[in-house]
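Hey L., structure's done. Input below.
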Amino acid sequence: MVTIDGLDERGLGVSGSRRPDVTPTEPDADSDASPVLLARPDFRLDAVGIAGTAGTADISGSADSGSDVEHTVAPPLTGLTIAEAAKATGVSAHTLRYYERVDLMLERVSRAPSSHRRYDDVDLRWVGTLTALRRTGMPIRQIARYAALVRAGDGNEAQRLDLLAAHRRLVAERLEEVRRHLTAIDNKIDIYRKKVDD
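Output:
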């Protein structure tokens, strides 16, 4: 199973908590621009679907448990409207429609008899994976490539691994840069605190 920071390619079964020290802001779904990184400790990826803290996406499980998915966070969510899915995943209804329009979803989102979208737990977990990739700066074109590989099924795991590993290297470099900047800011804060205390 191909993983990145504890996520398998569908966001279905490996534990992964986002590093709490840096969390990117939600980018414009129509843009390929990298998101801005901000400190936000409440965003974590968690197992079962979407049961996040502070209205953010949650997609994880336990990598050490030996099982593919650990259902300990929340019961599976099925049949959600687009508004409910948006609230559960922490992305806008516009972003959900965009993901579908540019063919990022693994399967076509099911429809109620009224023709309104209905998101099941698999859809929500996949949106969590898309969100993790997008909020760590992966361009839409690259996410589309990844989604196409996952949809194609077994046999292309090496390509998925290469794509995710390359993205992870970029994310790690950006995190290190942010840490350096944070250290510089902390040094300035220490200088001013000493001046104020004297």
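The longest strand covers residues 3-4. Helices lie at 82-89, 93-101, 121-135, 140-152, 157-197.

-- N.
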